[in-house]
Amino acid sequence: MSIVIVASFRPRVGRSLIAAALAYRAGRDGRPVTLLRLEGDESAAADAGTFASFPELRSPGTAVRADDVKRIEGDAIVEVPAGSVGALAREPGARVLAVMSAEDAPASAANTDAPAAQVAGTIITNAAARDVSALRGRQGVIAVLPEDRLLAAPSAEDVAAALRANWLVRSNHSEGIERVMIGTVASDAASPYFAGRERKAVVTRYDKTDIQLAALLTDVELLVLTGGGHPSPYLLDRVEGTRDDISVILTDRDTPDAMREIEGLYARSRFAGAAKLQRAVELMDEAGVSLFAGDP
């Protein structure tokens, strides 16, 4: 049995994304592994549920204890809470993969308290294009993932939580919001304005029905209605009757305040969605990361 522990000192640096991409690549390349999330922080249950939502991954769907990991048959990839890797890293056959954001990367690239002999290396995430080459040359770094709009994108759930918004329509198809746009003043300009952007959220007042309907004609993931009032029933009927890929939320905040809150979510949101997984797999393939003996 071989265990790869995906660890970091700080949260929100991409541990879940890296763990899922590694597990996906191993299975695709003929060496299926069990993907686990160790309990111990507030994100454990959500991360475990996300892992189990992908049919390509073998994962139990609930967070596990360290003793449960030891009973797994075959190879395993284990995401652990941010901080110390603990005794699990000292188990026979265990290796630690450290994950860190480029803004935190120290000169040595050390990012774990595991014994040096059991550290498989460091993956640096969210690196500016100009810094990728220099970061790759650091000791112990096995991959550097560049800044990526899709990987940084928050989900509709992230936006709703940040705005403390009410769900008016909830879709199960959201893959991440790559752009955020404020609704136009007049509807005649709205369609061409919205049409040039994909995977977007449109933020506009609850009573701007003409703007909202114009947004529905384009590739919109989320309508964020501000001001707290009730929107036109026609809008909700239109969404539910014709667009099962759109979510609609309502917040008491005004539009500028909502925009500021949403902008702060980028690169800090929880990993979710098949599109993000596939993009991470592509980047890991390009980096040529191999952690199990016999990997291609």
Please outline the helices and strands:
Layout: E1 3-7, H1 15-28, E2 34-37, H2 44-52, H3 66-70, E3 76-79, E4 94-101, E5 119-127, H4 132-136, E6 141-146, H5 149-152, H6 156-163, E7 166-169, E8 179-182, H7 190-195, E9 200-205, H8 209-216, E10 220-226, H9 233-242, E11 247-250, H10 255-263, H11 274-287
Parallel strand pairs: 1-3, 1-4, 2-3, 4-5, 5-6, 8-9, 9-10, 10-11
Antiparallel strand pairs: 7-11
How would you summarize this macromolecular structure in one to three sentences?
The protein is 31% helix and 21% strand. The chain is of the alpha/beta class and 296 residues long.
Provide a descriptive summary of the structure in words.
α1 crosses α11. The relative contact order is 0.16. The protein has 296 residues and is of the alpha/beta class. The chain has 2 domains: 3-148 and 271-287, Rossmann fold (3-Layer(aba) Sandwich); 154-263, Udp-n-acetylmuramoylalanyl-d-glutamate--2,6- Diaminopimelate Ligase, Chain: A, domain 1, CATH 3.40.1390.20. The chain contains 11 helices and 11 strands.
Largest sheet: 6 strands, parallel
Number of helices: 11
Low-confidence stretches: none
From the alpha carbons, calculate the radius of gyration and give it in angstroms.
Answer: 21 Å
